[in-house]
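TICKET: design request
STATUS: open
ATTACHED STRUCTURE:
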């Protein structure tokens, strides 16, 4: 069985100390969200665009506490699937969590393709019409597929470089903004001005904006998959994750305040490339400001690649362990990459990108970014519940323990931001999430029907502990 097999395998090398783990956490959080969604958040709440990012940090902090208790209690590289399996032991529930996480990777990458297309058009002076954006976005996803197929190893050293480049872009925006602010080219009265869409109360507008801003905070949960490669994870994970979330929150709040102070709300609201607009407004003749579109390209491009790699490998893992059809576990003989899973996830991403691009009322980034946060908030709600259930399970080592009230609050808040009447999400986000999960359920049902018909043994639920 799977457990016996893993006992003969060598352990992963523990190479990550506090500094490298911090760079991993920060690098995984930074990316598409802040580079693409600041304008969309401003469209919901006006000048108080910083507030939804701050609230999103609070929600992420609550869930991070739950993840920290679980990762220090069970320092294994399987994330939410492992925790749900231990808490419930129900095969179908564990599968749904796995497939939901995989789907969030596809929607996140598809959202990044829209942001990439917008920044590419600006950087190279191309028309930014819907047709151009769609062509660039689809071409970008095919490029990501090609790189994914060739097999890009995500080394710790590479992650350090990528993180520093993404971080440099945000620091550059802040530095140029400070230059403009000290020169008197800012209006801070806009920072506290709420301007909500017609028919929306301030509370609902903030909830809607927070649901969207949460997309910028996701990524911290991926670090738990590095538990088996981290030195003394039970000790260093809590301070590192809290520090990483804090750094991201400070950067997001400062950037959003600078954006609102420098760019009039009418120009910022709904802007597909908000940070490019901020820099061009703050210092139109400053040569280095022309670099921002290309740093944005790199940031969102890296996010898309990481998410598509995660999605294809997770799909491959579920197929390899008999949870999904066997053809999805096929590996290329020379490249040694899961080509079938890569093609399958890319096909879904291309379909999503094309479908959403036809709806001009809901920009690609906001619709798919919102769908990503919807999927992950649902997973986070379950993870918070898992903490409470697994309190009865004791382990033989010290681990982080969050106050009991925190997972309760975290679960309630996550569910609140998932529900349509409280989050103010477009119905299309639920439709997209539902279609993705329906695809998973159909594949799961076909697999179980095949096992039953051929009288092959059904997959062992313990296999989920090896996926991820």
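STATUS: resolved
RESOLUTION: sequence designed for all positions
ATTACHED SEQUENCE:
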């Amino acid at each position: 069985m799977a457990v016996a097999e893993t006992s003969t395998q060598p352990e992963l090398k523990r190479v990550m100390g506090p500094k490298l783990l911090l760079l991993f956490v920060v690098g995984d959080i930074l990316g598409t969200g802040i580079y693409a969604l600041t304008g969309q958040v401003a469209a919901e709440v006006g000048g108080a665009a910083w507030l939804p990012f701050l609230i999103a940090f609070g929600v992420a902090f609550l869930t991070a506490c739950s993840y920290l208790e679980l990762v220090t209690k069970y320092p294994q590289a399987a994330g939410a699937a492992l925790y749900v399996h231990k808490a419930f032991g129900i095969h179908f529930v564990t599968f749904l969590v796995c497939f939901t996480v995989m789907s969030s990777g596809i929607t996140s990458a598809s959202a990044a393709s829209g942001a990439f297309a917008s920044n590419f058009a600006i950087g190279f002076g191309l028309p930014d019409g819907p047709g151009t954006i769609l062509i660039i976005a689809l071409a970008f996803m095919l490029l990501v597929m090609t790189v994914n197929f060739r097999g890009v190893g995500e080394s710790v050293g590479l992650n350090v470089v990528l993180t520093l480049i993404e971080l440099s872009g945000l620091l550059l925006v802040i530095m140029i903004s400070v230059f403009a602010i000290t020169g008197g080219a800012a209006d801070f009265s806009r920072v506290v001005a709420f301007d909500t869409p017609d028919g929306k109360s301030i509370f609902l507008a903030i909830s809607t904006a927070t649901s969207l801003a949460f997309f910028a905070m996701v990524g911290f949960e991926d670090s738990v998959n590095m538990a088996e490669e981290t030195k003394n994870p039970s000790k260093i994970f809590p301070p590192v994750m809290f520090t990483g979330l804090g750094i991201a929150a400070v950067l997001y709040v400062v950037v959003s305040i600078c954006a609102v102070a420098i760019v009039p709300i009418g120009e910022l609201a709904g802007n597909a490339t908000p940070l490019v607009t901020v820099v061009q407004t703050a210092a139109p003749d400053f040569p280095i400001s022309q670099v921002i579109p290309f740093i944005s390209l790199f940031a969102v491009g890296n996010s898309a690649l990481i998410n598509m790699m995660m999605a294809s490998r997770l799909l491959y893992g579920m197929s390899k362990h008999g949870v999904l059809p066997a053809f999805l576990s096929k590996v290329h003989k020379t490249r040694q990459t899961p080509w079938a899973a890569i093609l399958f996830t890319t096909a879904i991403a291309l379909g999503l990108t094309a479908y959403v691009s036809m709806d001009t009322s809901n920009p690609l980034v906001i619709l798919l970014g919102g769908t990503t946060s919807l999927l992950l908030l649902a997973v986070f709600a379950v993870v918070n519940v898992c903490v409470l259930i697994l309190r009865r399970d004791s382990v033989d080592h010290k681990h982080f323990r969050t106050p009991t009230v925190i997972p309760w609050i975290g679960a309630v808040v996550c569910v609140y931001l998932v529900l349509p009447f409280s989050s103010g999400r477009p119905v299309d986000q639920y439709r997209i999430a539902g279609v993705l999960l329906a695809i998973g359920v159909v594949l799961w049902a076909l697999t179980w029907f095949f096992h039953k018909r051929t009288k092959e043994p059904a997959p062992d639920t313990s296999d989920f502990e090896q996926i991820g």
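CLOSING REMARK: The chain has one domain: 2-9+16-466. The two ends are 18 Å apart (CA to CA).
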